[in-house]
Amino acid sequence: MIRMLDHTADVGFELEAPTLEALFEGARQALLMTLFEEPPKGGEEERLVRLSGPDRETLLVRWINELLFFVQEESFVPAGAELRIREQSEEALSLEARLLGVPLDLEGHGWQGEIKSATFHGLDVTPGKDGWQTRVILDV
Amino acid sequence: MNIEHVSGFKYRIPKEGKMRVDAAFYASEGILEDLKSEDYASLRQICNVAMLPGVVEPALSMPDIHWGYGFPIGGVAAFDSEEGGVVSPGGVGFDINCGVRLLVSEMGRKEVDPSEGRLVEDPQKNRLADTLYKSVPSGVGKGRKDTAFSRVDIEEVLLYGACALVRRGYGEPEDLENIESKGRLPGADPKEVSERAYQRGVSQLGTLGSGNHFLEVQYIDEIYDEEAARAYGLEEGLVTVLIHSGSRGLGHQVCQDYVERCMDAAKRCGIELEDRQLAAAPIRSSEGEAYLRAMAAAANFAFANRQLITHSTRQAFASAGFDPGDHHLRVLYDLAHNNAKFEEHDDREVLVHRKGATRAFGPGNEELPERYRSVGQPVLVPGDMGRYSYVLAGTEGAMSETFGSSAHGAGRKMGRRAAKKAAKGRNLRRELEDKGILIRAANRATVDEEMSEAYKDASEVVDTTDGAGIGKKVARLRPLIVVKG
C-alpha cells in the first residue's frame, strides 16, 4: 500500500508491505510517483546496486537517495527493480538490486521537479499488522 | 507547551521537560492562527532544537516559520562550543547556503515593460523572458553546455567561492564587496567533500534548480524608508533582478553524507535526539569540524552558483537588446538563508544556525560594505511569484534579540500536492499574464506548486518583522518576468 503525503514544506509517502523487500520496492514506486506525472514502466537498461547500512532506516534513506542519484544525475529512470535485503545482524543490513529502466525524458514522463533528499525526519521502519510499514518525508 | 505573550509580536515558550533554554518566536494574529491550525507542530520543532547541548538562549523562529524536518523553516539557534555546543547538518538544511541575490539596474520599468503590463505580447519583454529562460537552465537532466568546469575548477570554487569565478571573468570585482562574507566562507576544505558530491556539482554550477528557486525581473514599486533606500541606491520604478538558488546537488550530497556521520557522533557522545534529522555533533569533535569544513565548501559553491547566474543574467539582458552600459546590473546584496556561521553576540563567539532565516546585521557592523554600514545590511525577503518581494534593513533589534537574524520569505501555507489540486482547471500562466507578469517555466507542475495562494502573504511576514523591530521595511518589488526551473 502506498499513500502519498503532503506537508506544507515537503512531500512524502506512507508504505505498508508484507516483506521488507516489498516495502523498499514500494518506496521506489512512490518516489517515481513523486518525480513524474507518468512514471515509465519497464525498460531495458540495467543497473546493479549494492548498499549496506547499520539499520533499516539508514538503508531505506540510502536506497531512495541512490535512486534519486540515478534519475537526477545520471538521467536513468529505474522503472523496475528486483531486490534482496539481508539482515546479517541488528546492526548490519545489505541490499542488492537489479534495476531496469529507461533514459530520463523530462517532457514524456511529466517531470514534476527535483527532490533534494530523503530525510530521517520521523522515520521508522517497523513491523506492522501485515508485515512492514514506514513513513518517508522528502525534501523538495 | 506554554506560550507567553511578551509584547506586540513577541512570544516566549518557557523551558520545560528536556528543553535547556526558552524558545521565542514572532507572530501577528494571523500567523498565530496558522500556527494553531497546525497544532503548533513547527513551534514544537523549535522546542526540540532548544533541547540540544550548548544551545544559547533563546532558540528562535522568525515570522515566516513553517513546519520543516528536524528544525523548522525559519529557525535560528546559536550554540556555544565552550559549553559543549553542537553543529547540526539538519539545522542548516540540504540546500547549504541557499540564498538570494538582488541586482539593481539603472533602467526604469518602461524600458523593459513599455506597455506597463497591458500588452502580453510585448516583443521586448518576451524576448528578455525567453533569453533569460535559455541562459539560466534549471540543471535537471542536463547541465550547462556553455560552461565546462573540471574537477580542479570545482575544487577552486569550493575554496574561493564567488571570487574563483570573478577571477575567470564571470563578473566584476565590485560584485564581491556586496556578497555576505564577500562570497567566500573561510575554513572550506574540498577534501571533506565526497566524490559523489563532486560528481553532482560539476555540471550544476550556474543552474537554478527547481521547486521554489527562481529568477525574477521586477521593478521597485514602493519605497518605505528613504534613508536606507538612498544608501542602497533604490529608487521607485527601477528594474531589479532577484535570484534565488543554492548549492545544488553538491550541497545536498554534503548534507546527506554528514547527517549520517553526525548521527554516529551523537550516539557516541550521548546526545539525545528528539528526531534523527536533528543529528548533531559537538562543534569540537572530528565529525563537527569536518562538517563545518565541508559546509563552508558547499557554501562557496552556492556563492559561485549565484555569481555565474548573475553573469548569465547580464549576458541575457545584453542579448535581448539592453546595452550593458545602460542596464548596469549591479549586485545590491547576496545573502544566505541556510547556513551555520561563527559570529560574536553578547561578547561571546557562537555558531549561529539559520535554516530558512536571513542574517540581518544592524547599523555599524564592520562586516557590512561601507555604503550600507550606517543603515544596516539589506535583507531580501522574496514573496510569491504573483505578488511582491521586499527589501528590508538589518536592525539593532535583530542584533540584540535574534542573533542578527530576520525572516527569509513568505512561507508556504499549502502543500505542493494541495496546490496542484487547487490549480486544476485554472490557467495560472494566463492569470499571471493578466497581472502583467510573464512566466517561463520548465513545466506546469512548477507553476502550479508555486502558485500565489500556496504562500502566505509576504506583507504579513514583513509587517510582523518590521513591527517586532527585527528588520526595517525599505522597499517593495513587483514581478515583471518569472523564470522557474
Describe this structure as you would to a colleague.
The complex is a heterodimer of chains A (140) and B (485). With 140 residues, chain A is of the alpha+beta class. Helix content of chain A is 25%, strand content 44%. In chain A, the strands form two sheets. In chain A, strands 1, 2, 6, 7 and 8 form a five-stranded antiparallel β-sheet that branches. In chain A, strand 1 and strand 2 (11-17) form a beta hairpin. In chain A, helix 1 (20-35) packs parallel to helix 2. Chain A starts with a strand and ends with a strand. Chain B is 36% helix and 24% strand. In chain B, helix 5 packs antiparallel against helix 12 and helix 9 packs antiparallel against helix 11 (248-269). The two termini of chain B are 40 Å apart. The A-B interface holds A 4, 6-11, 37, 57-58, 65, 69, 72-73, 75, 104, 106-107, 110-114, 116-117, 119-123, 137, 139-140 and B 38, 66-70, 73, 90, 93-95, 138, 140-142, 196, 199-200, 209-211, 249, 252, 255-256, 259-260, 263, 275-277, 279, 412-418, 442-443, 445-446, 449, 485.
Helix and strand arrangement:
The complex is a heterodimer of chains A (140) and B (485).
Chain A: E1 2-6, E2 11-17, H1 20-35, E3 45-53, H2 56-74, E4 76-89, E5 92-103, E6 117-118, E7 126-128, E8 131-139
Antiparallel strand pairs in A: 1-2, 2-8, 3-5, 4-5, 6-8, 7-8
Chain B: E1 4-7, E2 10-13, E3 23-26, H1 29-37, H2 41-49, E4 55-66, E5 73-79, E6 86-87, H3 89-92, E7 99-108, H4 109-112, H5 123-135, H6 151-160, H7 162-167, H8 173-177, H9 195-202, E8 214-223, H10 226-232, E9 238-245, H11 248-269, E10 281-282, H12 286-319, H13 324-327, E11 330-336, E12 338-345, E13 348-355, E14 358-359, E15 378-381, E16 389-393, H14 396-401, E17 405-406, H15 416-423, H16 428-434, E18 438-441, H17 444-449, H18 458-468, E19 472-484
Parallel strand pairs in B: 3-4, 18-19
Antiparallel strand pairs in B: 1-2, 2-3, 4-5, 5-13, 6-10, 7-9, 7-11, 8-9, 8-19, 12-13, 14-17, 15-16, 16-19
Helix pairs in contact in B: 5-12, 6-12, 9-11, 11-12
